[in-house]
Each structure stands twice: as structure tokens, then as C-alpha cells.
Amino acid sequence: MTIYSAALGVAISQACYATGENHERAVLRQLLGELDLDGVLIQADALHTQRPFFGSSRSRGPTSS
Description:
Number of strands: 2
Radius of gyration: 12 Å
Order of helices and strands: EEH
Shape: globular
Low-confidence stretches: none
Strand order of the largest sheet: 1-2
Structural class: alpha+beta
Mean pLDDT: 76
Helix content: 10-25%
Number of helices: 1
Largest sheet: 2 strands, antiparallel
Strand content: 5-15%
Distance between the termini: 24 Å
């Protein structure tokens, strides 16, 4: 899994994961938890839009455009 910054044009974080139920979600949660994401828009594929990753009041659910 890679977290890519469109603004910077580079990958900023990357990790491998075992295939299986919820492993990809767990790795994304871990990678995002290591970054300062205040005011940052995160885009992910449909697997990651089922529910918010973080339970804080600052986290919001999925949106579509």
C-alpha cells in the first residue's frame, strides 16, 4: 500500500500487508496514523469508504462527488 501526495508528486509512505480480510484496512489505518493529516483530504478506493477510520469528531464519513 502506498500513500501518495498529489501536491508533492511523490509517495510519502508505503507498507506491505498479508492478504486476507481487513488486512488492507489495518495497514491503511496504521499508515495514516503516522502522519499529520490536519486539514488534509484523503482519497481511497471503495473498500476504505465503508465507515470512518478514526472515531474522533474530526473524522467524517465517506463522501462522493
